[in-house]
Amino acid sequence: MTAVERTAGLPMSVPMDGLPRQVRVHEVGARDGLQNERATVPTEVKAEFVRRLARAGLTTIEATSFVHPAWVPQLADAEQLMPLLHDLGGGVRLPVLVPNRRGLDRALALGVREVAVFGSATESFAKANLNRTVDESLEMFAPVVATAKEAGARVRGYLSMCFGDPWEGPVPVAQAAAVARRLHDLGCDELSLGDTIGVATPGHVVALLDALTGLGVPVERLAVHFHDTYGQALSNTLAALRRGVTVVDASAGGLGGCPYAKSATGNLATEDLVWMLDGLGVETGVDLSRLTATSVWMAEQLGRPSPSRTVRALSHQE
User: Fold this and answer.
1) Residue 97 has pLDDT above 50, yes or no
2) Active-site hit among 41, 126, 258, 288
């Protein structure tokens, strides 16, 4: 792997009408990315990864998950990791995933101020991921969200399988919107709509966003989380931005997937997203060269090249 090389002035900024001036990138590589790695990454390497992402200008970095080690052994070191990140200060938000009240209590005890719960739009994935029905999972989340809010923490709600499910196939727009509305109504400050197996297309994205706003969920509270299984993540993101979404989940270097959905490939690569947004004149605050160098470094730690096309182009990876 070579050093990052970027031609000055590229991509050329050519704005499009109907897009937001600024987008906040919700970086998920340290959590959603590393949870799907076969090998367990040392805690010190995870901490350095987060620090490098912050130095690249990312202000929201999902750090880890407070799940039972048997579920996701790659993230069993949450208690050890979070104290290593205290030096980042208040300019960087470090949300964590909490599957239940026990996970929330563990996170709050370490001073965590932002948490996320993780639901499903389909019964099959709810059963596979949470061993509960959709209704039962929402019942489990209700006291978690309420307690977090009482403690002054910000809460994000993830909703998986919004567009398609490996067991059930296509997910009706009305079904996904109804479950999303229920998750939002628990008190979530932000709702991330997940295309967990990467089957969405732009028209489907627009239809779901319109359905949700039609149900009274403000677009300002919505984020999108696309996987690039069929190469649609960027086109889906652009469709969401044109509908008013300003928060996009992405993973440095394209790391990630889902351990409970084997057909889920990597997340939208943060570098690919930033390249597109830079070209559209949309501000992110992210230094693409530093970010790419971070992903090259992380790929070296994992012993394999990054799947991100932008990382490969800028670092001349084979």
Assistant:
1) yes
2) 258
